Amino acid sequence: MTTNAASSSWRASQFPFDFAPQRTQDADLLRQLNFVPGLKEVLTLRQVHALEHATVWVLSQSGGTAAARADNDLLGGMSTDQGFYLYGRVNIAQLRQAVREALQRIASGEWDLAVHPRCGTNVSVGMLLTAGLAVGLNLALPRGPILQLLGLGAAAAAAAQLAPDVGSLAQRYVTTAIPFNLSVVDITVSHDFWGREAHFVRVRWVE
């Protein structure tokens, strides 16, 4: 569940949500299926993932100087069910403001902020597409090495073309959800699972 800031030429509105998320959909689902182990953690993670993306978008859009924009292009994040880590050079006061703005904007209808072109979902989708197409072509083509290599190249090229759109669909419908149930608890400088220093935006679930 990672993301990096995209170049300024890309805009989230290229992949708008084509449905209206309901404010109570996740809370209602949790009440109905609260006996399912880990459901709350999964629902929280999807909402945190969307907030992470929205925060990176806000920070990327707020860079006034060329140096600030360059720093924002190096931002990255990783989501957990407790909150998200933000990597890169960012002022903590600026981050607090960006998180508040991101949460307000995405919950108020700017749902396209949940989708980010440099999300790790896109990478995973690209790998799966490449593997699936490669296996399919391997089975369909004759066993000659030249045709097999050509098939592998075709699979990689096709996957590269399909991955951005399929990845954005996966983000919209699978790996993110509008954070209607999140409240920001605090933002601290912390260390992730691998010992890397980052800002950690801690959240809690609210009905």
Describe the structure.
It contains 6 helices and 5 strands, in the order E-H-H-H-E-E-H-H-H-E-E. It has 207 residues and is α+β, with helices and mostly antiparallel strands. Strands 1-2-3-5-4 form a 5-stranded antiparallel beta sheet, with helices on one face. The longest helix has 31 residues, at 145-175. Mean pLDDT is 85; it is low at 5-15 and 65-71.
What is the element layout, followed by pairings?
Elements: E1 2-4, H1 25-32, H2 39-62, H3 66-72, E2 76-80, E3 83-87, H4 92-107, H5 120-140, H6 145-175, E4 182-191, E5 197-205
Antiparallel strand pairs: 1-2, 2-3, 3-5, 4-5
Helix pairs in contact: 2-4, 5-6
How do you describe this structure in short?
The chain has helices spanning 25-32, 39-62, 66-72, 92-107, 120-140, 145-175, and strands at 2-4, 76-80, 83-87, 182-191, 197-205. With 207 residues, it is an alpha+beta fold.
Overall number of structural domains: 2
Look at the helices and sheets and give the structural class: alpha+beta
* Separation, N- and C-terminal Cα atoms: 24 Å
- Mean pLDDT across every amino acid position: 85
Sum up the overall morphology in one term. globular
The main sheet comes to:
5 strands, antiparallel
Strand content: 15-25%
Gyration radius, in Å: 19 Å
State the order of secondary-structure elements, H for helix, E for strand. Answer: EHHHEEHHHEE
Oligomer: single chain
Helix content: 40-55%
